[in-house]
C-alpha cells in the first residue's frame, strides 16, 4: 500500500483561498496600522483646549448706557459692543445702500437695533479702529475711525471712506437674556 506523499501540492482552490485570506488579513492590519500612525497628526490639527475654552464669551450688558461702548476679547480678537442711541440707529437706517462700498442694511447687521456687536479689526490691515471711548475720534460718519490709513465706519460699522474693502465683521452672537449676550 502506498503512503500519501507529504509534499504533494494542494489543489489550486485551497491555495487561492489561503492566499486571499493572507492578502485580506495583511491589508487590514496595514490599514489599521496606518490609521493608528496618522491619528496623532490629524488630532494635532484640532483646536487647542485653551482656544475651545474661549469659543464663547458672555458679556453683561446691563451697565452699558445708551451711547456707551465696551471692548471685550473673543478668540483673541477685540469685539465692540455698543449700546446705540436713537440718533445712531436713525443715521444707520437712513443711509442709502447705493452709497456703500460693501452694501448691507443696518437691520441685517443687528439682532436688536439698540445693540451693535462687531469684530473690532479694520478690514484693511487689521488695525483696531478708534471710537469706543467718548474722547476717541469717530470719523466723519459717527462710528469708528482707523488712524492707520484713514478708514471711516458709520454707526452700523459699515465702511464709508478710506481704503478698507469691507464692513467691520459681525461675529456670531445671541442674547441669552435681557442683560447677557453670548458671543461665539
Q: Specify the CATH architecture of the largest domain.
A: 3-layer Sandwich
Q: Count the E strands.
A: 9
Q: Biggest sheet: strands side by side, in what order?
A: 1-9-8
Q: What is the fold named in CATH at topology level of the largest domain?
A: Rieske Iron-sulfur Protein
Output the CATH homologous superfamily of the largest domain. Answer: Rieske [2Fe-2S] iron-sulphur domain
Q: How many H/I helices?
A: 3
- Low-pLDDT segments, ≥5 res: none
Average pLDDT taken over every residue: 87
Assign an overall shape: elongated
Protein described:
With 184 residues, the protein is of the alpha+beta class. It has two domains: 12-46; 51-183, Rieske [2Fe-2S] iron-sulphur domain (Rieske Iron-sulfur Protein). Helix content is 24%, strand content 23%. The chain contains three helices and nine strands. A three-stranded antiparallel sheet has the order 1-9-8, with no helix packed on it. It has a three-stranded antiparallel sheet with strand order 2-3-4, with no helix packed on it. Strands 5-6-7 form a three-stranded antiparallel sheet. A hairpin with a 4-residue loop joins strand 6 (151-154) and strand 7 (159-161). The chain is elongated. The model has no long low-confidence stretch (mean pLDDT 87).
Amino acid at each position: 500500500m502506498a503512503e500519501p506523499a507529504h509534499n504533494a501540492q494542494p489543489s489550486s482552490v485551497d491555495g487561492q483561498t489561503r492566499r486571499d485570506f493572507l492578502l485580506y488579513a495583511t491589508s487590514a492590519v496595514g490599514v489599521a496600522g496606518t490609521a493608528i500612525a496618522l491619528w496623532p497628526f490629524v488630532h494635532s490639527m484640532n483646536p487647542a483646549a485653551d482656544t475651545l475654552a474661549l469659543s464663547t464669551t458672555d458679556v453683561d450688558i446691563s451697565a452699558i448706557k445708551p451711547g456707551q461702548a465696551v471692548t471685550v476679547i473673543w478668540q483673541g480678537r477685540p469685539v465692540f459692543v455698543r449700546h446705540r442711541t436713537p440718533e445712531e440707529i436713525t443715521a444707520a437706517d437712513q443711509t442709502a445702500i447705493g452709497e456703500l462700498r460693501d452694501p448691507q442694511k443696518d437691520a441685517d447687521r443687528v439682532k436688536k437695533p439698540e445693540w451693535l456687536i462687531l469684530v473690532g479689526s479694520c478690514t484693511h490691515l487689521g488695525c483696531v479702529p478708534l471710537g469706543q471711548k467718548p474722547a476717541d475720534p469717530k470719523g466723519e460718519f459717527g462710528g469708528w475711525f482707523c488712524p492707520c490709513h484713514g478708514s471711516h465706519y458709520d454707526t452700523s460699522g459699515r465702511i464709508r471712506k478710506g481704503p478698507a474693502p469691507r464692513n467691520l465683521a459681525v461675529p456670531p452672537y445671541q442674547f441669552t437674556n435681557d442683560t447677557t449676550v453670548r458671543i461665539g
